[in-house]
Design a protein that fits this description.
The structure holds two protein chains of two kinds. By secondary structure, chain A is an alpha+beta fold. Chain A contains eight helices and 33 strands. In chain B, strand 1 and strand 2 form a beta hairpin. The chains are: A alpha+beta, B mainly alpha.
């Protein structure tokens, strides 16, 4: 590098630093940073005040005369003077990892361990106590199985839904009923003062969210998104429910994993299925679950302290298609399943389909992308990724996922080859410098125009230009044909002929 | 410290009782420089402040990470993009960045840097403006050394073209 430019850059860096020094900086301080409302700040008085102001319905005492949804009756155990959580119980039958499912026959862990075999009725949710133990309710009352015991014991004869268990210095406190709640100290079964909990319950809809950590959000099309937030940083948006499963609940969240249940009816019905989402790699696992036998589930082990990487949205791609904002919200792990890729100076060009995990989840919204007439499984796209793996450009291809791709001097070329399921074929040309694109559809069946962005050019079935496609894209090598990256076996494409064809079509 | 197989000379982050103070002194200038290089002094400094505030709150978790500086950079980058998005992208990145006394750079240099890709801009400024090693840049940006080299080379090449500077 020339010394001159190097010296200029050094001078620029000094000027940049000087300018940034003029801007307010965060300085290490024992005082809580301002403008923050994360979990770590929950214990801070200032944030507690904010939460009390923001969430009066959930956490304020009910007005005089209000009828509680749950009633505290007789405590059945004597209080110890102090309670020390057992983080790694030595005598515990509760595994330190995986998850556990509660039902009429007791509690079973994901590794097959029967944590507790007990028949009962009216069981509901299963909640960790923060010290290696588990808490649940049934028709008799509130039960607690501390981490160093092998049997649960009845803490109090109380009815109502178990919302959460809040670790406190005096022992874990169970919150029963949502609007309003009753708080029970598990160590003595006695009442506990109203406390800040983590769960925020919307008393009108019954929806839950964990303050500052996750929320369930229903968009205008009825799609339910799980929104994971850590310290004001979005970690993920994951679609988890919709018209087929309109009721979703987070059963447990440990910072790195989410255990959620879905129901076809309302939240009072037993769950239909359980899903485990690992936020580190956004893997999604369906957990076998028998609706008639099981009522709740919880993760096992301590909270996950290794924060998942924050979610990165797509970078304002220049070419949005109809409803592709659905895909823009997805973590790349759910959005991208690489079919083929080619390297170029500007980055990596991919042919991509939605991941199989998204396809599994899409059962919740009946396959079709909300607000559109096309199915998640029919979607494909041409993506440009930068060196860090971020999406910097894309061309959405609903109903015609491309099957081959090639990089030319000026353009990137791709195309779909029609098959029995998705019969239309396409030619796609993208300017590598400007990202301007052109999609030509060779119609082979009933028009799919309802699915197509308006800018697409359609060659009707009876148009003589249909015959040109077979001359430009072939299975066997031919003069002028370039071998391209293909997901359907060898393909050879005459890129010069494609240019000529597209220039002609656009000119029309 | 080994990062992507390359030795980095920065001192290891301490996890002692006053760990955050030591971590802060060492990491704050790096995270701020990296964010200011990518998003300009105003947005970068604000994003760095947010990221470091997060670091204070989440110190227990952060101190166990392999590359906490890189993690804070990513958090800051997320914040900076949102700030930029809110402000509108037409605002110049390097508004108010003018040569200090006894120094000089082309008046067109800030605009030329702005026209580079985000990654190229960071790599060029950190490597050749601040004089960091490739490994140091790679650690904070959370990418590999070859990636930094590639972006630095391409960014410099484009700068030379735009500014009419010979090799």
């Amino acid at each position: 590098m020339s010394n001159d430019l190097e010296q200029q850059l050094a001078a620029f860096a000094r000027a940049l630093e000087a300018r940034s020094d003029q801007t307010e900086k965060y300085t290490a301080s024992p005082q809580p940073p301002k403008h923050r409302a994360g979990l770590g700040a929950l214990a801070m008085a200032g944030v507690a005040v904010v939460l009390l102001v923001v969430l009066p319905i959930v956490f304020f005492k009910p007005p005089e005369g209000a009828s509680p949804t749950s009633t505290l009756l007789t405590p059945t155990t004597m209080p110890p003077t102090t309670w020390v959580p057992t983080t790694e119980p030595t005598a515990s039958v509760i595994p330190g990892e995986g998850w556990a499912i509660l039902g009429s026959t007791g509690i079973t862990a994901s590794d097959g361990t029967v944590i507790w075999a007990g028949n009962g009725t009216g069981r509901g949710r299963l909640v960790r106590d923060g010290g290696g133990g588990l808490v649940f309710t049934d028709s008799k009352g509130l039960w607690w199985m501390p981490g160093d015991t092998t049997e649960p014991h009845l803490v109090a004869e109380i009815s109502g839904e178990l919302i959460e268990v809040i670790p406190t210095s005096a022992g874990p406190v169970a919150r029963i009923g949502s609007c309003p709640s009753t708080f029970v100290n598990l160590t003595d079964g006695g009442g506990a003062p109203e406390r800040l909990g983590r769960i925020n319950v919307n008393c009108e809809t019954g929806d839950w969210g964990q303050v500052g950590r996750y929320d369930l959000y229903e968009d205008p099309d009825g799609l339910i998104w799980l929104h994971i937030i850590e310290f004001d940083m979005t970690t993920a948006w994951i679609p988890v429910g919709g018209p087929s499963y309109p009721s979703v609940r987070v059963e447990d969240f440990d910072g790195g994993r989410v255990l959620l249940s879905r129901r076809q009816g309302d939240l009072d019905d037993p769950p239909d299925d359980l899903w485990l989402v690992d936020l580190h790699d956004v893997s999604v696992v369906e957990i076998p679950f028998h609706r008639d036998e099981h009522t709740g589930a919880a993760l096992l082990g301590p909270d996950d302290t290794d924060l998942p990487a924050p979610w990165e949205p797509s970078l304002e791609p220049p070419h949005r298609g109809d409803r592709t904002d659905f895909f823009d919200r997805l973590p790349v792990e759910l959005r991208i399943d690489v079919q083929a890729e080619v390297e170029a100076d500007e980055g990596t060009w991919l042919l991509s389909r939605p991941s199989s995990e998204l396809s599994n989840l899409s059962g919740a919204w009946g396959c079709r992308v909300p607000g559109t007439d096309w199915c998640t499984l029919e979607y494909g796209e041409v993506l440009l990724l930068d060196a860090s793996g971020s999406i910097v450009g894309y061309v959405p291809m609903p109903t015609v996922p491309p099957k081959w791709i090639a990089v030319g001097e000026e353009y990137v070329y791709a195309g779909a080859v029609g098959d029995g399921a998705l019969p239309d074929s396409t030619l796609v040309r993208i300017d590598r410098e400007t990202m301007e694109w052109c999609v030509v559809v060779f119609e082979a069946d009933e028009p799919y125009e309802w699915a197509m962005p308006q800018e697409w050019i359609v060659i009707p079935m009876d148009d003589p230009r249909q015959a040109l496609l077979a001359q430009m894209v072939r299975v066997d090598p031919f003069e002028g044909g370039n071998a391209v990256e293909s997901v359907i076996g060898p393909r050879y494409v005459d890129l010069a002929a494609v240019d000529e064809f597209i220039d002609g079509v656009v000119g029309d | 410290m080994l990062y992507n197989g390359v030795h980095v000379d920065w001192p290891a982050v301490t996890t002692s009782e006053s760990g955050f103070d030591a971590f802060f002194r060492e990491v704050e200038p790096r995270v701020r420089a990296a964010l200011c290089s990518a998003y300009g002094a105003d947005v970068g400094a604000e994003a760095a402040a947010e990221a470091l505030a997060y670091g204070w709150e989440a110190w227990e978790r952060l101190s166990g990470m392999r590359n906490p500086a890189g993690y804070l950079y990513k958090l800051g980058r997320d914040r900076a993009r949102r700030i930029r998005s809110r402000q509108g992208r037409s605002l110049p990145l390097f508004r108010g960045v003018v040569p200090l006394e006894d120094t000089w750079f082309e008046p067109g240099l800030p605009a030329a840097l702005e026209r580079l890709s985000e990654r190229q801009r960071s790599a060029v400024i950190l490597r050749h403006g601040y004089g960091w090693t490739l490994a140091e840049v790679a650690e904070v940006l959370g990418v590999s050394v070859p990636t930094v080299q590639k972006h630095t080379d391409r960014g410099l090449e484009r700068l030379r073209r735009e500014l009419g500077v010979d090799r």
